[in-house]
């Protein structure tokens, strides 16, 4: 049951993140606009939503920044990595290693050394999102080391 909820939640949230700017950009019906507004409100709980740090689609910024978008894209990949035929077991060490690219881009940005831009932030976050989702699936299945 928990696994089904996780899969459903990741798929629903990922779809909502893509659909919300579409609804706002194309000025769809009232119900879609209300739903899109709710997605942006939910996104604001976990993300700063800065326009300069966000991807834009249909002339509208996404409900989350580039780094968060990468985390959620990674979560989708993590679900794929967690399918039953994958023999490797997720570990906390894998998650720590997967956090290195995100941590490095964050530290380099804070130090003023480099600005990786939204594509760089998103790409660096994908491994962390995938590893965390894979770890959660493994924990649900009782297969975490």
- What kind of sheet is the major sheet? 2 strands, antiparallel
Count the strands?
2
Rg over CA atoms: 16 Å
Overall geometry comes to flat
Please provide the ordered H/E string of secondary-structure elements: HHEEHHH
Termini distance?
Answer: 22 Å
List low-confidence stretches.
Answer: none
Short description:
The chain is an all-alpha fold and 145 residues long. It is built from 5 helices and 2 strands; from the N terminus they run ααββααα. Helix 1 packs antiparallel against helix 3 (66-81).
Which features does this protein show?
mainly alpha; 5 helices; two-stranded antiparallel sheet; single chain; flat; about 70% helix; about 140 residues
Structure description:
The protein is mostly helical. The chain has one domain (2-141). It is built from 5 helices and 2 strands; from the N terminus they run ααββααα. It has helices at 2-25, 30-46, 66-81, 92-110, 117-141; strands at residues 56-57, 60-61. Strands 1-2 form a two-stranded antiparallel ribbon. β1 (56-57) and β2 (60-61) form a beta hairpin. The model has no long low-confidence stretch (mean pLDDT 90).
């Amino acid at each position: 049951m928990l696994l089904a909820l996780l899969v459903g939640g990741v798929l629903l949230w990922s779809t909502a993140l893509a659909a919300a700017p579409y609804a706002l950009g194309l000025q769809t019906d009232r119900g879609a606009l209300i739903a899109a507004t709710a997605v942006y409100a939910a996104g604001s709980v976990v993300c700063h939503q800065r326009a300069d740090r966000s991807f834009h689609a249909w002339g509208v910024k996404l409900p989350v920044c580039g780094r968060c978008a990468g985390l959620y894209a990674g979560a989708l990949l993590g679900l794929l990595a967690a399918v039953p035929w994958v023999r490797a077991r997720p570990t906390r060490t894998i998650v720590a290693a997967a956090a290195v690219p995100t941590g490095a881009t964050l530290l380099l940005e804070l130090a003023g050394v480099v600005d990786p831009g939204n594509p760089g932030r998103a790409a660096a976050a994908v491994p962390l999102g995938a590893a965390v989702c894979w770890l959660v699936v493994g924990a649900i299945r009782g297969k975490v080391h």
